[in-house]
Amino acid sequence: MRPTLISANPRVGKGLTVAHAYRQAQVKQGAVVWVIQPKYHPKEHGYWEQADNVLGFMADSLESKEDIDDICEQMQRFIFAWRQLPQRPKVLIIDELAMMKTAFKAWYEGFLKSQLTMELSSGETDDRALWAITQSSLVGDIGVSGGMRATFDLLTIQTPSSQSHLESLRKSDTSIPPIEDEVIFERSFSPKQAVFYHSEIKEWLPMVAYEVPELSSASITGSLTRGNHGTAGDVAESVISRTEFQKPSQGPDLPLIIAVTNALAQGMSRSKVIKEVLGYQGHKYQEGYDLFDRIKSIIEENS
Q1: Please, are residues 170 and 178 in contact by the beta-carbon 8 Å criterion?
Q2: How far apart are CA 51 and CA 92, in angstroms?
Q3: Per-residue confidence (pLDDT) for residue 252, from 0 to 100
Q4: Distance from first CA to last CA of the chain, Å, rounded?
Q5: What pLDDT does 232 receive?
Q6: pTM confidence score
Q7: The predicted structure's pLDDT at residue 118
Q8: Contact assessment for residue 225 and residue 240, using Cβ atoms and an 8 Å cutoff
Q9: Largest Cα span, the chain
């Protein structure tokens, strides 16, 4: 199990492939798996349900600089806490690097880029594996120089319609061979006729048809505990008991809805409402984040 960069166009099966890969790492190698998912869409919650800890959020829903700064701080603590885990081997999956580079530009350049470089270049020596997922076809976007290329694996997934992505990727990493016979697409079991290249295998092969993971009934009826956002110690401790499920919470009452409505009308940011109006901080922040979304939906439906 090595540090790996996964590069492919949107909607070709990156997330689905990684979801099956991390479950194999858990079963066959006893790996502890943590995930940072900045596009935590409900349709894909099942992909990450079996991970030991998930920091999931929707980056495109952050409404202010304070919200952005807050989530960047949480991601930073999450990464440090994962690195401090005593369990080995351990995997950290970070999705949507291209989006994160745009949404959190200063933090990405000032902090995350160096962390990606460090994990991809040296994490394997400590039984740590970073799996970084990106739509970008430029390896340099994550700060990896040509001399570091041998320190991590590369997985790319391509379809008959992704020729421009492949050409750009091959310019970025000249070790990737061309697809010389397009008949390989017809041999794919994937609905998208996808094929893949892995740097350890060094050849193009047809993709298999993976089953799409679905949420368990417990997760559908309950609220999944996704990433604790307190101190590094809080986050590190959460993995010991594995992912747990909470009892279904009661709907927000009218006074709480009114309080949030007034706070939003006064221009208060999401994170400030969660902390000061709803009273959720530290390792309870994500619970407050979910409650805020429910209340905001109610407000919008009745406005």
Answers
A1: yes
A2: 10
A3: 67
A4: 52
A5: 40
A6: 0.73
A7: 85
A8: no
A9: 65
* CB atoms closer than 10 angstroms to residue 300: 8
What are 17's two structure tokens? Answer: 């492939």
141-158: burial string, b at 16+ Cβ within 10 Å, e else: bbbbeeeebebbbbbbbb
Q: Average pLDDT for consecutive 10-residue bins of the chain (303 residues)?
A: 90 91 92 96 90 94 91 95 92 94 93 88 83 80 61 91 90 89 91 92 89 67 40 38 35 72 86 84 78 86 67
- The first and second tokens of residue 50, run together, are 């079996």
Which of 297, 296, 298, 301 lies closest to 265, judged by CA?
Answer: 296
Question: Per this entry, what is the length of the chain?
Answer: 303
Domains of the chain: 4-206 (3.40.50.300), 249-303 (no CATH)
> Is 5 within 8 Å of 136 (Cβ atoms)?
no
CA distance 243 to 286: 14
Query: For residue 272, how many C-alpha atoms fall within 13 Å in the half-sphere facing its CB?
Result: 11
pLDDT at 245: 30
Q: Could you tell me if 75 and 55 are in contact, meaning their C-beta atoms sit under 8 angstroms apart?
A: yes
